[in-house]
Inverse folding.
């Protein structure tokens, strides 16, 4: 039986969350203004949130 793969901080995982429709719309608009995909804008927001809290 093969050994389990070691997880890396750069591995892609799926995050599922329910957010208000208005916040989703704001994210889509902000992403478009920055010429980003909504996924990249969300990833950037999470990274900034984590950096701000030093985690």
């Amino acid at each position: 039986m093969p050994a389990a793969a070691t997880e890396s901080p750069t591995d892609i995982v799926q995050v599922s969350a329910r957010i208000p429709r208005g916040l989703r719309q704001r994210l889509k608009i902000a992403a478009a203004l920055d010429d980003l995909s909504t996924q990249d804008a969300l990833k950037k927001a999470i990274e900034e949130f984590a950096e701000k809290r030093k985690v």
About this structure: Residues 21-52 form one domain. The first helix runs from residue 21 to 33. The mean pLDDT is 90.
